[in-house]
Amino acid sequence: MAMAMRTAAARVAARVVTDRVSGYNKGFGFVRYATIEHAAEGIKGMDGKFLDGWAISAVYARPRPPPPGNNAGPPSYQPGYGSQFGQRKIISGRS
């Protein structure tokens, strides 16, 4: 992949994402270019092409979506996880 995505020494780094357990690649990777213009050239040059029998989809990286569930913030801001909000105070009649 790194050799296929190079453009006139504008490629800075390339990384194929692999599975932590098996070590097999996950079918995607990241290429870092020196400038946005070089990245646009690399995407234009590789998008829709074939590499080793596989169709290549070259796009700009997108941010990771937030995880599903309660996204109220870090645990310190959620009631019951060490914050003062949502904790029960036990009041007994004994002094």
From TrEMBL:
GO terms for molecular function: RNA binding. PROSITE patterns: RRM (PS50102). Residues 14-63 form the RRM domain. Keywords: RNA-binding. It comes from the Eukaryota. Residues 62-95 are annotated as: Disordered. InterPro entries: Nucleotide-bd_a/b_plait_sf (IPR012677), RBD_domain_sf (IPR035979), RRM_dom (IPR000504). This is RRM domain-containing protein. It comes from Rhododendron griersonianum. The lineage of its organism: Eukaryota, Viridiplantae, Streptophyta, Embryophyta, Tracheophyta.
